[in-house]
What we know:
The protein has helices at residues 2-25, 32-52, 58-74, 91-109, 115-130, 148-186, 190-201, 204-210, 216-230, 236-252, 258-271, 274-299, 318-330, 339-346, 370-383, 399-410, 414-427, 449-452, 458-465, 471-478, 507-518, 664-674, 690-694, 696-699, and strands at residues 484-487, 499-502, 528-546, 553-556, 558-563, 566-567, 575-579, 597-602, 607-626, 635-640, 646-650, 654-657, 679-682, 702-707, 710-714. It has 24 helices and 15 strands. Helix 2 (32-52) crosses helix 10, helix 7 packs across helix 16 (399-410) and helix 9 (216-230) packs antiparallel against helix 10 (236-252). It is an alpha+beta fold. 47% of the residues lie in helices and 14% in strands. The chain has 3 domains: 2-435, no CATH class; 471-518 and 663-714, no CATH class; 528-657. Strands 3, 5, 6, 7, 9, 10, 11 and 12 form an 8-stranded antiparallel beta sheet that branches. Strands 2-1-13-15-14 form a 5-stranded mixed beta sheet. Strands 4-8 form a two-stranded antiparallel ribbon. The longest helix has 39 residues, at 148-186.
Amino acid sequence: xxxxxxxxxxxxxxxxxxxxxxxxxxxxxxxxxxxxxxxxxxxxxxxxxxxxxxxxxxxxxxxxxxxxxxxxxxxxxxxxxxxxxxxxxxxxxxxxxxxxxxxxxxxxxxxxxxxxxxxxxxxxxxxxxxxxxxxxxxxxxxxxxxxxxxxxxxxxxxxxxxxxxxxxxxxxxxxxxxxxxxxxxxxxxxxxxxxxxxxxxxxxxxxxxxxxxxxxxxxxxxxxxxxxxxxxxxxxxxxxxxxxxxxxxxxxxxxxxxxxxxxxxxxxxxxxxxxxxxxxxxxxxxxxxxxxxxxxxxxxxxxxxxxxxxxxxxxxxxxxxxxxxxxxxxxxxxxxxxxxxxxxxxxxxxxxxxxxxxxxxxxxxxxxxxxxxxxxxxxxxxxxxxxxxxxxxxxxxxxxxxxxxxxxxxxxxxxxxxxxxxxxxxxxxxxxxxxxxxxxxxxxxxxxxxxxxxxxxxxxxxxxxxxxxxxxxxxxxxxxxxxxxxxxxxxxxxxxxxxxxxxxxxxxxxxxxxxxxxxxxxxxxxxxxxxxxxxxxxxxxxxxxxxxxxxxxxxxxxxxxxxxxxxxxxxxxxxxxxxxxxxxxxxxxxxxxxxxxxxxxxxxxxxxxxxxxxxxxxxxxxxxxxxxxxxxxxxxxxxxxxxxxxxxxxxxxxxxxxxxxxxxxxxxxxxxxxxxxxxxxxxxxxxxxxxxxxxxxxxxxxxxxxxxxxxxxxxx
Length: 716
């Protein structure tokens, strides 16, 4: 029954999308791949509206889908696809397509085990389905990404759960390969079209991505459908479809944003009509606007979680974004000259395209022909953002265009083209990949038909394919519904209903993690004392300004103001401000060394913390208590006098080191509990919780469950 529910969930979703596409396109485009992708944009947006209205129920999806299918069938817009015929002497190509189709079909149907799929892609989908719609998730920056593909997953998940979502993604690969062949046939090179399609279809990273609850292959399918329709006769229906698909690319993955400009540019070039461009732009905006509006309302950033410098918010800091972007630009490579081998052969960046794509420069020979120039232009458009993330997955979007251009360039020597494709088909099969790739490269390993048909225990399969699988079941059994668990490491959230706070996934989570670290780590413990002394005088405000440039993050645990030996009592009338990141500045004035204010950007001149007394205060000293792991900061103290003038009170503080603070462990746990954390998850090989595991009595926490080396501690 589970296998049937998976097939129904995926099949129903795909059928509804095709029907919606047929209703829009009518007779202007009868190919099912274009109808599917266009309909997917409409279905995704419809599910967004249902989720926003908290109507994400299975029954609602059934009714919606039945109405769409009825309308599509009644108008004869929906029809099953017919297998295109290849010349008999190319049956070898059909053989490889069938072989890989079987591999991918069962892999997509097997229990979902992909790293991102089981953490956030389906983690959010499962939560939306449980809660019947959206809610504001501020503790995981991935939740602010556009989730156009997740809306399709949600529709399928309602019937077939996790694997149905993966099957929907696989449908985009089938549509892509089919459409690539149709394009080659339309342009007069069907054999090259079929060969180019197989180059993509058999690529190892494409295969495992398409059979997982990811979105990269969907983006490639969307990009190619957009390309395909842009070179059709531009009827009003086609123009609307082009806009919807261009907007859908952005809604599925931010990196597809150039598709909107590409569509507008081509339409303007072909028609020279503002009205046609307006139709495309408006249709694209209808798909994009829901996501940007959601992010603006919930996260104060329409393009969250990026560009936080221009859209400041308390959820993602600029420092984290810069560090995150830097990691994605290079990973563990030391030079960009290592990229070609890493993405094609070794798999060291997470997946591989296949060694045959080392021949990609051959595609430049296709520039001699008009279709070749169009293909390479599209490849440049959809590959222009690649160096922002050099994982092979981010080359999947331009890959169809490159593959077709390669096939077109080699088509003049047909035996050579067929040899290249056959070699690619052979060496990309899972059994051969370990012979030349890293053993840790992300790729499929076998045809998991027993797991797909649920003839093998699901937990056994997931235990062998999902890192830390079993931890989420421990949480389900050992914590109360609605509990919040803090962890330094992501876990398979798609298989648990608990709220998981991962250390790096939000600014608030990072503060939680630092609260734990500073309780025992001498480098992060607030033992630094920075004292500014100045002539006793009346002041209306004081401002501590950072004057240096460094990679440190400025932190203040407590800022105290003195008049002689007397500390000025914090007054509710005081106005506390900070630049940047003003949202937690009150934590530097709450008389607790456990809490702190942290500047959201690395040290730059002009950053400040200011206290406006809103009245006259007499003072002669300011003391800052902080952690010593910020040696790159340089501070000065200014004061505003009664006449409103700012003067420098002290050019630099006197720095001293205090004794380690006692009792911070229990104080940290008390603070975490106040912040809503119920449990801490501790993995056996992580340094961040080593002290916590060794001395739970000092922390005042209780071990409530253990799975292998992973321990779950409950906060009092």
